[in-house]
């Protein structure tokens, strides 16, 4: 950083796009979410390489740096496995007390939250929705619309991801389409 110099920012965040040389992209396919969806028969009818969601991340400090913040945008494609919507894997943070913000950018969805007592509830996501996820609360997002659902996230760089617990025990409720409406069952 040069004193008194005014430079361009390293990142652009325009509508649903996160742009920058240091932005990292990852994809999650149906195969990556094997065993997460309830309807195994429907799972078998859809190609394992089907793209469910993409994550664009800016991780300015080494993962695990206390006090630093990560930033990411997730795009979930529309679709269902049986009656269950395309969704993220979902996780607690490895450092369980670390909180996070999510916010809706486009499309429609539900943020599914579960506390340590396994109480599960949801918050609707849409352009402008803002969600505070306290520490100790597992989080997952489902796309309930017919278009891409994009949302932003900002979380501490030392939060880490604990996917194992959700892979083993799931959430205590699933977001399913019941009589045409998304419901936690
Ligand atoms: C988000 C999520 C992202 C993908 O950046 O990691 O939306 O969801 P999964 O990690 O559950 O597959 C976040 O919550 N970071 O902590
Ligand atoms: Zn998280």
Describe this structure in words.
By secondary structure, the chain is mainly beta. It has a single domain, classed as Jelly Rolls. Helix content is 6%, strand content 42%. The chain is built from 2 helices and 15 strands. The longest helix is centred in the first third of the chain and has 6 residues, at 40-45. The model has no long low-confidence stretch (mean pLDDT 97). The site of zinc ion has 5 residues, from loops.
Query: What is the CA-atom radius of gyration, in angstroms?
Result: 17 Å
CATH architecture group name = Sandwich
In CATH, the topology is named Jelly Rolls
CATH class, named Mainly Beta
Write the element-wise H/E pattern from the N-terminal end onward: EEEHEEEEEEEEEEHEE
User: Major sheet, described briefly?
Assistant: 6 strands, antiparallel
Small-molecule binders: 5-phospho-D-arabinohydroxamic acid, zinc ion
Give the number of DSSP strands: 15
The largest beta-sheet arranges its strands as 3-4-5-13-8-11
Unreliable spans: none
Kindly report how far apart the N and C termini lie.
Answer: 53 Å
Mean pLDDT: 97
Q: What's the total helix number?
A: 2
> Fraction of residues in helices?
under 10%
**SSE class:** mainly beta
The tally of structural domains comes to: 1
The CATH superfamily label reads: Jelly Rolls
Topology (SSEs and partners):
Elements: E1 12-14, E2 17-19, E3 24-29, H1 40-45, E4 51-58, E5 69-76, E6 80-81, E7 84-85, E8 100-106, E9 109-114, E10 120-125, E11 130-133, E12 138-143, E13 149-156, H2 164-169, E14 175-178, E15 181-184
Antiparallel strand pairs: 1-2, 3-4, 4-5, 5-13, 6-7, 8-11, 8-13, 9-10, 9-12, 14-15
The structure holds 5-phospho-D-arabinohydroxamic acid (PAN) and zinc ion.
The site of zinc ion has 5 residues, from loops.
């Amino acid at each position: 950083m040069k004193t008194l110099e005014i430079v361009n920012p390293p990142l652009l965040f325009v509508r649903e796009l996160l742009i920058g040389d240091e932005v990292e992209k990852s994809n999650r396919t149906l195969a990556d979410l094997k065993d997460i969806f309830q309807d195994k028969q429907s799972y078998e009818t859809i190609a394992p390489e089907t793209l469910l969601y993409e994550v664009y991340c800016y991780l300015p400090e080494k993962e695990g740096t206390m006090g630093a913040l990560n930033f990411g945008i997730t795009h979930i494609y529309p679709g269902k496995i049986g009656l269950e919507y395309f969704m993220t894997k979902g996780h607690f943070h490895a450092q369980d007390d670390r909180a996070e913000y999510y916010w809706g950018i486009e499309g429609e969805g539900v943020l599914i939250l579960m506390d340590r007592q396994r109480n599960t509830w949801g918050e609707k996501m849409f352009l402008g929705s803002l969600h505070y996820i306290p520490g100790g609360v597992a989080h997952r997002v489902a796309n309930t619309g017919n278009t891409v659902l994009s949302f932003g996230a900002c979380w501490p760089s030392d939060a880490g991801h604990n996917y194992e617990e959700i892979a083993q025990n799931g959430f205590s409720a699933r977001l399913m389409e019941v009589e045409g409406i998304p419901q936690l069952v």
